[in-house]
Amino acid sequence: MNTASKPTIEPRKKPVQARSTITVEAIMEATIQVLLSHGVERLTTTRVSERAGVSVGTLYQYYPNKQSLLFALLEQHMEQIASAVETACDYSHDKPLAEMVQYVVERFVDAKMQRTDISMALYRISTEVGGPELVKRATGRLQKALGTMLNTASDVNDKPEPFAIEMMMATMSGTTRSVLEAGTASPLRIQKLREHLVLLCQSYMKSLSTTPSFI
Amino acid sequence: MNTASKPTIEPRKKPVQARSTITVEAIMEATIQVLLSHGVERLTTTRVSERAGVSVGTLYQYYPNKQSLLFALLEQHMEQIASAVETACDYSHDKPLAEMVQYVVERFVDAKMQRTDISMALYRISTEVGGPELVKRATGRLQKALGTMLNTASDVNDKPEPFAIEMMMATMSGTTRSVLEAGTASPLRIQKLREHLVLLCQSYMKSLSTTPSFI
Amino acid sequence: MNTASKPTIEPRKKPVQARSTITVEAIMEATIQVLLSHGVERLTTTRVSERAGVSVGTLYQYYPNKQSLLFALLEQHMEQIASAVETACDYSHDKPLAEMVQYVVERFVDAKMQRTDISMALYRISTEVGGPELVKRATGRLQKALGTMLNTASDVNDKPEPFAIEMMMATMSGTTRSVLEAGTASPLRIQKLREHLVLLCQSYMKSLSTTPSFI
Amino acid sequence: MNTASKPTIEPRKKPVQARSTITVEAIMEATIQVLLSHGVERLTTTRVSERAGVSVGTLYQYYPNKQSLLFALLEQHMEQIASAVETACDYSHDKPLAEMVQYVVERFVDAKMQRTDISMALYRISTEVGGPELVKRATGRLQKALGTMLNTASDVNDKPEPFAIEMMMATMSGTTRSVLEAGTASPLRIQKLREHLVLLCQSYMKSLSTTPSFI
DNA sequence: CATGAATGAGGTTTCATTCAT
DNA sequence: TATGAATGAAACCTCATTCAT
Question: Fewer Cβ atoms within 10 A, N terminus or C terminus of chain B?
Answer without folding.
Answer: C
